[in-house]
Amino acid sequence: MEIILKQDFKNLGHKDDLVKVKDGYARNYLIPQGFAVSATSSAKKINAENIRQRAHKEEKLRNEASEFAKKLTDVKLKIGAKTSKTGKIFGSINTIQIAEALTSIGYAVDRKNITIYNADSIKEIGAFKAKVKLYRDITVDIDFEVVAV
Question: How far apart are CA 27 and CA 25, in angstroms?
């Protein structure tokens, strides 16, 4: 079944994308929850017109995101954490701390757009990488180091 997404949906597509999914998934979950509409011919025409009208705004957002990505490429973060004598962190470092560290140096990024490579959270000191999604297809890798406080 073809549907048109009303909002960004992880691992499925972005807002206003035409996506093919299984019938049951569309009828029982996506459409009743308001995440999508059925892709009839009239809905496709309306969607095409909406995309055409929004193209200028999206180009501006894409340019802003690429400029922001250029600024973030050289950023190196140091995140402090309380540690034991063996180097284990009390608690963990996750995307919330990375977002706070970026905000403290003047780069506001939502924590939901940050992904830590190879882990959900970090439990030891060392150097790590994270991916920051700035726009649909614009991402930047950030190096950060967890140090003992």
Answer: 6
- Note the pLDDT of residue 120: 80
Which pLDDT tens digit goes with each residue over 99-117?
Answer: 999 999 999 999 999 999 9
Long-range contacts (CB closer than 8 Å, 24 or more residues apart) made by 60-66: 61/135, 62/135, 62/138, 65/134, 65/135, 65/138, 66/135, 66/138
As a whole number of angstroms, the distance between CA 3 and CA 102 comes to: 37
In this prediction the pTM is 0.73
The confidence score (pLDDT) of residue 58 equals 87
How is residue 140 written in tokens?
A: 């930047």
Q: Which pLDDT value is given to residue 49? A: 92
Domains of the chain: 2-69 (3.40.5.10), 74-148 (3.10.430.100)
Element (H, E) at 132: strand 126-133
